[in-house]
Design goal:
alpha/beta; single chain; six-stranded parallel beta sheet; 293 residues; globular; two-stranded parallel ribbon; 10% strand; TIM Barrel
Length: 293
């Protein structure tokens, strides 16, 4: 699979069920992740038990994630048992999801101090998995950038010239206003600027592992924007993401967005899949079919 930022190879899905993944063409699910270590980690056994799902899973790269420092033990155990599902489908490994310095176990220092354990997991694969940084951010781009700078600084201080092995930088983006076409274009331009500045800062390929036009936790007027606001932003952002050579992968947040106990502020307006789960929303249709002219 090409992994050099070539247009048409970048788009992925945040999705857990085979049923939802099947709704998308190959171009929209070149890679897939679910915040876990395996396709069936969250109970979706159909990936193994259903013949159609078995065929589907061979058509994309599943990218495992070490969700937090607390998940390191599970990751080591899974790799120690040489889990075939991971080994057959994975070329990359994602670091922690939205670490924050307010939590001592997620600080840049804490993560850097244990990064060699993450490297050890990646190195058990043949060839070793390519490693992505933890993805700080969400709505705090300044804090997220500082976290990454601190992470690399602590890596150098703790591990000498070798530092931490990192092959790409993962980031999130939600600072968007899609209330009209001009605002959506301005937000897409801001996304461009953020990704450019991140590349200039670290000199590594960029994976935009979460983005949309304002998540449910955003301050007003960004919170819970309508599906049309998200659609305007996505329409403006997709050509830029495909054209940016330093952006190697991106994934919209997320395929099926619903209010849940774990995500009570979720905004169904940003869901790529419709309310009853039977097909794609208008937003999903654009994400599924977009091609550069």
């Amino acid at each position: 699979m090409v992994d050099d930022g070539t247009p048409g190879t970048k788009r992925g899905l945040i999705v857990r069920s085979c049923e939802h993944s099947m709704l998308f063409q190959a171009r929209a699910r070149r890679w897939q992740y679910n915040y876990g270590l395996g396709l069936t980690q969250f109970g979706h056994d159909e990936w193994h038990s259903d013949r159609a799902c078995q065929g589907l899973r061979a058509s994309f790269e599943f990218v495992p994630m070490v969700y937090s420092l607390g998940a390191l033990a599970s990751a080591k155990k899974l790799v120690a048992h040489q889990n075939h599902n991971m080994r057959a489908l994975s070329k990359h490994l994602l670091g922690m999801n939205e670490p924050r310095d307010g939590n001592a176990n997620q600080s840049a220092l804490a993560v850097a101090s244990r990064w060699k354990e993450v490297e050890g997991i990646a190195d058990r694969f043949h060839p070793p998995l390519l490693l992505g940084t933890p993805a700080p951010g969400g709505l705090e781009l300044g804090k997220g950038s500082r976290w990454l700078h601190d992470f690399f600084k602590h890596c150098g201080a703790l591990h000498g010239k070798r530092g931490c092995r990192v092959d790409f930088v993962a980031v999130h983006f939600y600072e968007c206003d899609g209330r009209n076409a001009a605002a959506a274009e301005a937000s897409a331009s801001a996304l461009d600027h953020f990704l450019d500045s991140t590349f200039r800062a670290f000199g590594l390929p960029i994976w935009l592992t979460e983005f949309n036009c304002g998540d449910g936790a955003a301050p007003q007027p960004l919170a819970n924007q309508s599906s049309q606001n998200h659609l305007r932003f996505l329409r403006a952002a997709l050509p830029r993401l495909e054209a940016a050579q330093h952006v190697h992968k991106y994934s919209w947040f997320q395929a099926a967005q619903r209010h849940t106990a774990m995500h009570p502020g979720a905004n169904p307006g940003c869901s790529l899949i419709n309310a009853n789960g039977s097909g794609l929303s208008e937003l999903g249709q654009l994400y599924n079919s977009f091609e550069l002219p």
